[in-house]
Amino acid sequence: MKKTLSLLLVLILILVGCGNTTTSLKLDDRGYAIETNEKYISRQEEDAVIKNVILLIGDGMGANQVEVSRRVLLKEKEIFDLDKAEYKAEIITSCLNNDVTDSAAAATAFATGVKTNYEVVGKDKEGNDLKTILDYAQEAGMKTGIITDKGLDDATPAAFSVHLENRYLLQDSIPTQQIDSGIDIFMGGNVARYLDFAEAIQAKGYEFITTKEGLLNTKAKKIFAAYSSGRMMNQASDVPTLAEMTNKAIQVLSQNKRGFFLMVEAGQIDNRCGEGDIIKMAKAVQELDKALRVALNFARSNKETLVIVLADHETGGLVIGEGEPDITWFTEATRYHTAVNVPLYAYGTRSSFFADKILDNTEVFEILMMLLNLK
Ligand SMILES: [Zn+2]
Q1: pLDDT computed for residue 7 by the predictor
Q2: Domains of the chain listed by start with CATH number
Q3: What is the distance in A from the centroid of ligand 1 to the CA of 67?
Q4: All residues at 6 or more sequence positions from 184 whose CB lies less than 8 Å from its CB, including other chains
Q5: What is the pLDDT of residue 3?
Q6: pTM over 0.85
Q7: Across residues 191-212, what is the average pLDDT?
């Protein structure tokens, strides 16, 4: 009898487990999702189909930001998943009217393939709205999503979802444009900007979520999740991490047979460089690396997935040199963006297409459109 009872209990536990669509992240002692299918070999043949693209953007993440983060955070012989890139490329970051870009013009180049002026979001130099890769993806029946650990109204998520002459003007139109964008998933910060739009968000079929618990447990297919009253999402217990948001988004979007396009921004690297805080900068890079692990675990189980990590520009002119201190900033006074080329890391199906290329930021759009067969 006791045996029957315990068997019944196990059965009930299994059934309850199956009813929950959320697979929570199983983490190792470094806080990374446990790596799956390490023996995975990516498909590089020309006829290999890509259905899903996960594009991770490290705001301000130059090659030295990654190198310094490894030195200050990891033990000897430990590496980042960034270091496991199958292929690498380099990106030229300039915008139309300046060698040193801002995040708005840079993200517009990735999202639309058009070089535009400083601080312009989703528009060309004449002020015309530009179609984004998410628009093309939706037309082809793909699902789409945008995630950031900064404000959802910040430059990078905005460039993939709205059109503004200037990122700092008419910001109240950002929620309205995002709600009408048809994009399936928004997850990010600055909830204060979105609270007045809760009804409008729900009217478009989104579940409007403001708690971590709410996000992890929802079964909704359209999600608008906003946290933290400021633009910087902190790591408080009721705020999901970039990796948790990425995991949830992939679970929802991957239910679509026609595939998905997901943009994930680690936005705080740029701010930490601006502040000159090496440790916090390194931790922001690691948050991106943890989200990358989640993306790679999906790519290793789904052979029609390409994962790209890149940066919009470098911030602060981070230098590794001789003497004390050996890590310093070239632009010590201002620590603003610089014009150096930034790295691109490619993983998964057809990642070899990027091998050792030096690409203009607009070419990233062209290549993704071509690989997804959208043009
Ligand atoms: Zn930026």
Answers
A1: 60
A2: 47-371 (3.40.720.10)
A3: 19
A4: 143, 144, 145, 221, 222, 223, 252, 253
A5: 60
A6: yes
A7: 97
